[in-house]
Amino acid sequence: MRRYLFPILAVLLLVLVTVGLLLTQLGRGGALDPRSVSPDGAKALAQLLRDRHVDVRITTDGSEAQDLAGSDSTVLVINPELLPRLALQSLITSGSRVVVVAPDQSQLDDADLPMDVDDSVEPAKREPACTDAIATRAGVAVTGGLTYKIREGVGCYASSGSASYVSLDGGRVVVLGDGAPFTNDKLDQQGDAALALLLLGQSDRLVWLMPEALPLAEGGSSFYSLIPHQVKVAVLALLIGLAVLAVVRGRRLGRVVPEDLPVVVRSAEAVEGTARLYRAARARNSAAEALRSSVRERLRRALSVPAEHRPEALVDAVAAHTPRDPGQVAGLLYGLAPSDDAELVALADALDTLDLEVRRP
């Protein structure tokens, strides 16, 4: 059991680390995601709205958002550039209050909104400096992003003469240049919380629309880009853990160290075991060569034949000390492999006889 203790502990540690990483990543999402606790997420705002009995519905589909919305609903549109063309105009004409975050010129034109994109500025503390009731009540807020030159409506939180907050049709449509007032890390600064709650908390229901891109349909990304980030982190942690486990448990090969056998094996048992292995493998050629090589070595020593010799030298020396002719001796010492077990046994007997003939006094 002790040999499995370390692998079990390593696997448990790996599981705990992976679960911890997954739990850490579960609360993280994209920017202005009402389920995300990251600095650029908006879970804090969503919770504040729910505490004020606002029914917050989250969707990624423009058609579903239009079905969920009604005359007493507010629709918050994040990433309007991901909506189908004219989808924003359909939401605006549906009768709901619509708050749009950072639309570009093409979305403004498609929705027939009387304004033009002017510039982009960093979010900073700004005075409303306008007559809009919501902005005036909220006061100083951290606003910025895109700024707009307006032809109709009320512009607030201006920078260089362009507004980063535009109220149209008496506040029924509001365009924000950036979603900074809604984020977790900016919500407690200045009047951001008041601005966000006043904008999004006027209706009984808030439809939080976050359209998603379809990169594969557009041919711009691979399948890997669709895998959630937390899954990638978990897989990476598993691979690192497996690599560490493999290194720790891997066999380390060093120099060969001779060791004494744990038991003494009698020579007869060793010979019998080796013979059984040869028989199981049907290695008659290897068995015959083992017999011949051992006999050749004994004969060479008995006849004082040099270690570096040609086969003919040993054959001639053996033939000179036996009544056998050189051809018969060569056949026994260097001949063909036996074709069956009977020939192998006969070869072993013939080699023993030859050995006795040479070494007989």
Secondary structure: elements and pairs:
Blueprint: H1 5-26, H2 43-51, E1 55-59, H3 62-68, E2 73-77, H4 87-92, E3 97-101, H5 105-110, E4 115-126, H6 133-138, E5 141-150, E6 154-159, E7 162-168, E8 173-176, H7 192-200, E9 205-209, H8 215-218, H9 229-249, H10 267-281, H11 284-302, H12 311-320, H13 326-334, H14 341-359
Parallel strand pairs: 1-9, 2-3, 2-9, 3-8
Antiparallel strand pairs: 4-5, 6-7, 7-8
Question: What does this protein look like?
Answer:
- With 361 residues, the protein is α/β, with parallel strands linked by helices.
- The protein folds into 2 domains: 33-209, Rossmann fold, CATH 3.40.50; 267-359, no CATH class.
- The protein has helices at residues 5-26, 43-51, 62-68, 87-92, 105-110, 133-138, 192-200, 215-218, 229-249, 267-281, 284-302, 311-320, 326-334, 341-359; strands at 55-59, 73-77, 97-101, 115-126, 141-150, 154-159, 162-168, 173-176, 205-209.
- A 7-stranded mixed sheet has the order 1-9-2-3-8-7-6, with helices on both faces. A two-stranded antiparallel sheet has the order 4-5.
- Helix 12 (311-320) packs across helix 13.
- The radius of gyration is 45 Å and the shape is rod-shaped.
- Residues 214-221 have low confidence and may be disordered.
